[in-house]
Amino acid sequence: MNIRYTPAAAAIGLAIGMLVSASAGAADTIRVAVAGPFTGPVTQYGEMVKQGVDTAIEQINAQGGVLGKKLVAVTMDDACEPKQGPVVANRVVNEKIHYVVGHVCSGATIAATDIYNDEGVVMISPSATSPAVTDGKNYDFIFRTIGRDDQQGPAAADFIAKQIKPKRVAILHDKQSYGQGIATAVKKELEKDGIKVVMFEGINAGDSDYSAVITKLKSVDADFVYYGGYHPEMGLLLRQGAEQGLKARFMGPEGVGNADINAIAGPAVEGMLLTLPADYSKNPANAAVVKAFKDKKRDASGAFQLTAYSALLAIADGIKGVGADDPTKVAAYLHSHAIDTPLGKISWNKQGDLTNFKFEVFTWHKDGTKTAYQYQK
Length: 377
Description:
InterPro entries: Leu-bd (IPR028081), Leu_Ile_Val-bd (IPR000709), Peripla_BP_I (IPR028082). With about 375 residues, this protein is α/β, with parallel strands linked by helices. It has helices at about 5-25, 45-60, 85-95, 105-120, 150-165, 175-190, 210-220, 230-245, 260-265, 285-295, 305-320, 325-335; strands at about 30-35, 70-75, 100, 120-125, 140-145, 170-175, 195-200, 225-230, 250, 275, 340, 345, 360-365, 370. The longest helix has 21 residues, at about 5-25.
């Protein structure tokens, strides 16, 4: 029997064919959401994470993918805003994505974790350092590939007390989960060490004029300032402090470690101190990974590129380890296995925090580079 296709029937047939093709294509891929700030004032940190994820995916796919499937990154923007964390998390769930590298900022991460854990989505943050991400939550699906502020804060405070030995310390923060949390940790440890904290105060992130704060720093005669927050505000504090003749030295956490701070602070950025994850790009064992970054004109030495790379590796190894794209089994696998990464062999405790992580102190320079601090004996 000859079948005559009408235009409408042909259109329906084409649509069905496209759906079948799309379904077949989806079956050949495993999607991983990359959640972080891709708009707003700290987009650089989202880009650091994306560089790490993209590089890891390219290398894994070049070797045949995972269980014969290609990995695909799906970028999702939360603008580093806590209110956008749940929006992105719900989008991940609705799009049936099982794995997330991110979120980047602690506030957005904290706001999203309940959704991921309740819906069985594996989330690994390469950058959210607030203890509140995991403390007391009894999560099964939430992990990170970076240390916590209650590790980073004491490391900074110990350095300040033993290396800088200031007389009068001022501590500022941006009133947000990440910045205030680490500033509080530094204050607590400094006071244990007998270092006088003469000022502990929040500033408004996004302001353009901190001259009143600088005046107050001068009035309390602070010779050292620790700032908990991100680079846009730190850059302004440095520049405006120099303009007003403030002689104190500044230090911050990994959130200030961004080359864009140089354009904001100008020459005043020279000598800024900061804590960062160890520079794993200097490890000879990571030479091939570093080359893969360079080949794509990416920088492996930033704060979050290799922690993000390692997060993606952990997801891929988990899927391989259980032999299935099954986030429940992958989460259980990660809780019970150590993973080889550029950070070394990493493993997690019951609440998804790394069992070991090291922060180091660096000196930032006006050309945008950093050098490991040379400790005085």
